[in-house]
């Protein structure tokens, strides 16, 4: 699908639930977050129908996200169904890794292509604090088991100033030891993230460069996304930087999202407009769905406005947490 700015939209991120078994400080409040009732989420069959339609429209990669996708029943089966669609080239998942070990055998058998695993720190006490109850050991075991299955793995790390900035080196060392990639994602000013101070990826690279020699890599031109990669010399590990604020990548954005509430999102910043759930539950035909989706995607915004005026932000900005939108 080509939008009005001639971008090829071929990457779909699907949030299958807003629920999570952790409450990371930059994502969810510690208390009083009411999760969406399951009746107000798309069913697994509805997700599959939309993914099939979008595959026919040009989507080539699908990433399952949440919340935490593995708290929802039926996800391994959904992965299998997606993997059987002829137009989908890659089926991926983003997870915190806590439940991953339990489902990994089935996910691998069903054709999961790659995993992004959230890991912000390797100190057990600090990990428990930042996730409000997470067990680091479970995540590490999941990573090691996924490596045995030869599933492509990337670590996703969010660095918060005055909390885990001093742990950047140990995260990179861990990635090198496991022979996997690590990506540093700028803290997004959405939901709980608005109240925290992040660390720029430029500063993170400076910290890494004190101990490791790195070389910037050319863009691979794949459908995977916006990360700028540096190779750590003498290793197979790449360090990725996703910098939507300090280094806007909107010009080449190739993605859309389906939220856990069944809305189609053109952009992480802007509020959702097209209500896919309503269309699905009023017996809308595949043809009509395709027309509405194509029209919505064609008018995808040129770029986000995270750095715009407070007045504009109040009018335009997505009000949901990242767990609803899909991390």
Automatic annotation (TrEMBL):
MF annotations from Gene Ontology: 4 iron, 4 sulfur cluster binding; cyclic pyranopterin monophosphate synthase activity; GTP 3',8'-cyclase activity; GTP binding; metal ion binding; S-adenosyl-L-methionine binding
Binding site for [4Fe-4S] cluster 2: 250, 253, 267
Cofactor: [4Fe-4S] cluster
Residues reported in the UniProt entry to bind S-adenosyl-L-methionine: 26, 67, 118, 188
Any matching Pfam family: Mob_synth_C
Subunit (UniProt): Monomer and homodimer.
Similarity remark: Belongs to the radical SAM superfamily. MoaA family.
Name of protein: GTP 3',8-cyclase
Organism for this UniProt entry: Sebaldella termitidis (strain ATCC 33386 / NCTC 11300)
């Amino acid at each position: 699908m080509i939008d009005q700015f001639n971008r090829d939209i071929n990457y779909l991120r699907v949030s299958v639930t807003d629920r999570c078994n952790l409450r990371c400080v930059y994502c969810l409040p510690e208390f009083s977050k009411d999760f969406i009732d399951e009746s107000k989420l798309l069913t697994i069959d509805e997700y599959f129908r939309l993914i099939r339609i979008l595959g026919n429209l040009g989507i080539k990669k699908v990433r399952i996200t949440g919340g935490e996708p593995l708290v929802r029943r039926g996800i391994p089966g959904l992965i299998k169904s997606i993997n059987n669609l002829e137009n989908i080239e890659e089926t991926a998942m983003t997870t915190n890794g806590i439940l991953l070990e339990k489902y990994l055998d089935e996910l691998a058998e069903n054709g999961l292509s790659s995993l992004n695993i959230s890991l912000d720190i390797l100190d057990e006490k600090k990990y428990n604090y930042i996730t409000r109850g997470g067990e680091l050991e479970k995540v590490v075991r999941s990573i090691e088991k996924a490596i045995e299955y030869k599933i492509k793995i990337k670590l996703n790390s969010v660095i918060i100033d005055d909390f885990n900035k001093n742990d950047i080196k140990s995260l990179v060392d861990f990635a090198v030891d496991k022979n996997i990639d690590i990506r540093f994602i700028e803290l997004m000013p959405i939901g709980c993230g608005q109240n925290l101070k992040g660390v720029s990826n430029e500063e993170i690279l400076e910290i890494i460069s004190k101990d490791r020699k790195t070389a910037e890599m050319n863009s691979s031109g794949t459908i995977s996304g916006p990360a700028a990669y540096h190779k750590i010399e003498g290793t197979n590990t790449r360090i990725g930087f996703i910098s939507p604020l300090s280094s806007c990548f909107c010009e080449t954005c190739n993605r859309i999202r389906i939220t856990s509430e069944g809305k189609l999102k053109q952009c992480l910043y802007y509020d959702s407009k097209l209500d896919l759930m309503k269309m699905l539950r009023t017996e809308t035909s595949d043809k009509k769905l395709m027309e509405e989706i194509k029209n919505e995607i064609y008018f995808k915004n040129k770029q986000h406005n995270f750095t715009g005026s407070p007045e504009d932000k109040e009018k335009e900005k997505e009000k949901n947490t990242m767990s609803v939108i899909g991390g």
